[in-house]
Amino acid sequence: MTENLSQARLIALARLGRSLKRSRKIIEEKLSDEEIEALARLAGAMGCRELWETASASGLTVAHAAATNGWLPRGFDLWEIVDGDGKTVASAAALAGRLPEGFNQWSVADRDGQTVAHVAAARGYLPEGFDRWELAWLESLTVAHLAAAYGRLPADFDRWETAAPSRLPVAHYAAGHGRLPEGFERWGFLDASGVTVAHYAAGHGRLPEGFDQWDLRDSDGLSVAHAAAKAGRLPEGFDRWEIEDAEGRTVARVAAERGVFPKDYQKWNERHSTGLTMAHLAAKGGRLPEDFDQWDLRDSTGSTVAHAAAEAGRLPRGFELWSLADAKGQTVAHAAAAAGSLPSGFAKWDLADAKGQIVAHAAAAAGRLPRGFALWSLADAKGQTVAHAAAEAGRLPVGFDQWSLADARGRTVAHAAAEARRLPRGFDRWDLADAKGWTVAHAAAKAGRLPVGFDQWSLADAGGMTVAHVAGERGHLPLGFDQWSLAGANGWTVAHFAAFSGHLPLGFRQWSLADEDGKTVAHVAAIRGYLPEDFDAWDLKDGTGRTVAHFAATCGHLPEDFDRWDLRNSAGPSGSGSFAEARGRLAEDFDGERHMGVEGMTAAHAAASSGNLPEDFRQWDLANAMGVTVAHIAAEFGNLPDDFDRWDLATPDGWTVYHSAAHAGGLPAGFDRWDLKTDEGFSVAHAAASAGKLPEPFALWGLATDDGVTVARVAARNGHFPADYDGWEREAFDGWTFAHVAANHGTLPEGFDRWDITRAADNRMTVAHVAAEAGNLPAGFDRWELMTLDGWTVAHLALAHGHLPDDYSLWDLENGDGVTVAEALARYRRDA
Could you point out which of 433, 580, 666, 751 has its C-alpha 20 to 30 Å from the C-alpha of 820? Predict the structure, then answer.
């Protein structure tokens, strides 16, 4: 070392003389940190400016060594020289408390951005009167923040609001580090986010002893007490539990959630607006004291503290109140079972809740049964076993083999697992059937859980439904399935079922596969709207001669570019008879879909019946075998377009489109051709009257068919007179007035009071008699005394036909022979 120091002195002297170049080379290659320190002492004493940047292999410069040891000469100004670690000479001097008096280059920074002022602040070496407190370190902490963190702020510091770029004021930063001076009073000062100094101190457990501003609020309405409670920092002896935050939560509730109650706390039944008691909150957090015994304390929903603790897995050892029930009848044991918090050795597996579910089922459903559990056949009130509950939840243990165990409905465990898609790999008992003959394979097919390579497609249930049919209907058949013609008990093939639900594969072409009635796969797909875009077998017919196009047209499933409107079916009558007789002859198909069943009906007719003709359709005169045009069908069903103009199209017997439209109430505005008749004299007015579609007012009530049936008679028979009709006494036929006709058919309007209108026939039967005979008298009828020429009162006639009401009371009313109603009743009973 002596030799090295001597060498250092010689080098320093050489640097001052003529051998500068040579000495620098020696220094760079040979000097250690110890030699640098020796040079620093010489340089400081001799003012050797050329040596300050000279560094050892480790990066220590002469200037840094001199600054650390206080050897820098007066007037030194190379403060920004950095060592191997990027630290400036100024930082080294500040760290050692060696900055000279009057130093003012406080912004000189190390490579990491830390200024000289920050280093001095952290070490407490800032001079009196320092005022560069806002100086920031890499846009992070100011000098004031760093000084506050280390408790180095001067006693008279008053710039507490100074904020770091992170927007946290010095006061908050000091509070968080417990460095606020004694007597600090600006507790309510808010930072940019609305948090007070007191809240920040409380959250860090830094409030001073004796602090009493517990209800001081931040911008969100949270008190200091709440902040302290959340942090678990409330002092012993705190008694302001009732303070509420902006949401109504008390300090006690927050304390309960954090488990920071004092040992002597007793307000366990105190409730928050949510209905939870403090005990419930403490139980959820596992914070109840060891001697707690208020397990039956309930919240607003009726759930006990014990339930809250069980659900959180926080029941104490030795807990025994397993049958304690909440408001819904669920026991603590059920809650613990579902949460997996039952103790080892628990034996009350058959304990039932109010719904009859036993604890074992709750544990099984949650996958919480203990290892080695063997009570699989234990059943609840509905007869479901524990194994079924576990199977439905996918919680059966590996190696379970009691697949045939059945519940009260005869459903096996295997079925429960299959329906829940929980069968294990390698399961092979596919033909295991339940009480109804439904196999496990059927259940798995329905759920789409048959294994790859399954080949028992023809396996049938008790009703003849195969596994393939179930899978096909649900869209669970594998790629490459080719047993489409496999038929079930009802004759439908697998393809029919797949077509019905829209699960036929792309490229399917076996459209002509038919069931026992001749209905093809294409017909089924057409009804459901599942035909592919490139389908072209529209003329394919079912067993009754109806084409695929008819089915699709009726159901509105024809493509937009369909143009084969003249395709005809061959179903229905031979073509004899009138349209009036065959009109509306519709056959009900499966799924409630309707299609036309008259022979020769075109696809256009079918579309017209259901309102599925395109907007530009113009082939209105297409007719079926009976001469009924597409326009007639569209009119009959109210599906004519607004611009229709082919009203005079008629069937062979003269039934026009007007007639069909009248029957449907779809005549054009301003129509006045009510007397337009068919060959049999059936007018447009008759068609409208039969359906109650006549306008109000209407005057042509006497318009008659060729055989004398008037419009009024048709209206009377069907109950379609307008509210203001007053022609009840007019004769309809053979002495019968319109009132008699309506009474006979039960179509008299409410409030009718012309009961004494009589028939022109000899017996002078009134309207009331006709209604009584037909059982059409209204409730409250009181004209029982009306009598025919041969002495029959309305009451006697009603009695004779079994239509006397239960509340009838005029038992002494006599007929023309002096026989009272009571005597007549007695005779009937005697004769019977």
Answer: 751
- Residue 701 confidence class, pLDDT cut points 50, 70, 90: confident
Q: Which residues contact 512 (CB under 8 A, 6 or more apart)?
A: 520, 521, 522, 537, 540
pLDDT confidence tier of residue 490, bands split at 50, 70 and 90: confident
Run of H or E including 344: none
Alpha helix stretches (DSSP H) within 126-166 = 143-149
Q: Can you give the pLDDT at residue 264?
A: 65
User: Helices marked H in 735-787 — which ranges?
Assistant: 738-745, 767-774
Q: What is the mean pLDDT of the chain?
A: 86
pLDDT for the residue numbered 831: 82
Closest to 448 (Cα-Cα) out of 506, 409, 389, 503: 503
Q: Kindly list the distances between the CA atom of residue 161 and the CA atoms of 14, 178, 544, in Å, as whole numbers in the listed order.
A: 56, 17, 94
Q: How do residues 295-326 score in pLDDT, each as one tens digit?
A: 999 999 999 999 999 999 999 989 999 999 99
* Burial degree of 412 (CB within 10 A; 0-12, 13-18, 19+): buried
Please state the rounded mean pLDDT for residues 26-46: 76
Residue 250 pairs in a beta bridge with 244
Q: HSE-up of 683 (CA within 13 Å, CB side)?
A: 23
Rounded CA gap, 525 and 316, in Å?
64
Task: For the full predicted model, state whether its pTM sits above 0.85.
Answer: no
Token pair for 189: 């000062």
Q: Do the Cβ atoms of 468 and 477 come closer than 8 Å?
A: yes
Query: Which pair of structure tokens corresponds to residue 594?
Result: 């309707």
- Selection from 62, 69, 130, 116 nearest residue 88 by Cα: 116
CB crowding 414-439: b at 16 or more within 10 Å, else e: bbbbbbbebbeeebeebebbbeeebb
Task: Please name which of 586, 583, 582 lies closest in space to residue 596, comparing C-alpha atoms.
Answer: 586
Contact 326, 304 (CB under 8 A): yes
| pLDDT, position 468 | 96
| Pair type for strands 594-596 and 736-737 | unpaired
Q: How far apart are CA 335 and CA 302, in angstroms?
A: 14
> Residues near 220 by Cβ (< 8 Å), separated by ≥ 6?
194, 245, 246
Higher pLDDT, 125 or 742: 125
Q: Hey, what amino acid is at 374?
A: A
Closest CA to 601 of 544, 559, 673, 526: 544
Phi, psi dihedral angles at 417 (to 5 degrees): -65, -40
Q: 10 Å Cβ neighbour count for 178?
A: 14
Region 407-417 average pLDDT? 94
Residue 155 has pLDDT above 90, yes or no: no
| C-alpha span between 604 and 745 (Å, rounded) | 37
